[in-house]
Amino acid sequence: MRDGFRNAGLLGLAALLLGSPALGQTADPPEDSKGSPQFSCFEATRAGQGAVSETLAAQLCQGARSDAPAQCFRRVQAGGFLSDPQALQLCQYATPSDDPASCFLKARTSSFLDEAQLVQLCRPPIAEMLKLCPYGP
What are the record keywords, sorted (predicted)? Predict the structure, then answer.
């Protein structure tokens, strides 16, 4: 039994050194990531006007299911109402059905709440639920 484990270890080491795929792995290249919603969101964030860092775009689009976070971010940034961290907090995890940018822009014109309170009011519901998870998404 022990020889079987040793042989498997030697085989894996040889595969690693020779550049072959390890046992149980395929040699297929990874899928083209352009079809993923996170990457589409990332590209949409970076394609808009104004410089958005890749780090910020990646944070914004983490877990995205569409480019809705990018659209939200661009809409609130166009008015210059929010700092990048506030816009990130408002728009991360946005979906087309909850549209936090519209909520923020409407509430901003019809209430006396400050921007931080409006961000909390209009954030997507998933963002509030994730605060309850001690280890994050």
Answer: Signal
Residue 95 lies in a domain: yes
Query: Structurally, how many domains does the chain consist of?
Result: 1
Among 113, 33, 102, which residue's Cα sits nearest to residue 71?
102
Judge whether 6 lies within some domain. no
User: Residue 11: inside a domain, yes or no?
Assistant: no
Is there a domain that residue 10 lies in?
no
pTM of the model: 0.66
- pLDDT tens, residue by residue, 71-99: 999 998 888 889 999 999 999 999 888 88
**Distance linking the first and last C-alpha atoms of the chain:** 41
Q: By residue range, what is the domain housing residue 87?
A: 34-130
For residues 39 and 29, the answer to whether their CB atoms sit within 8 Å is: no
Give the Cα separation of 82 and 79 in Å (integer): 8
Residue type, 91: C
What pLDDT score was predicted for residue 133? 62
Task: Give the integer Cα–Cα distance in Å for 125 and 47.
Answer: 27
pLDDT at 127: 59
Contact indicator for 41, 66 with CB cutoff of 8 Å: yes
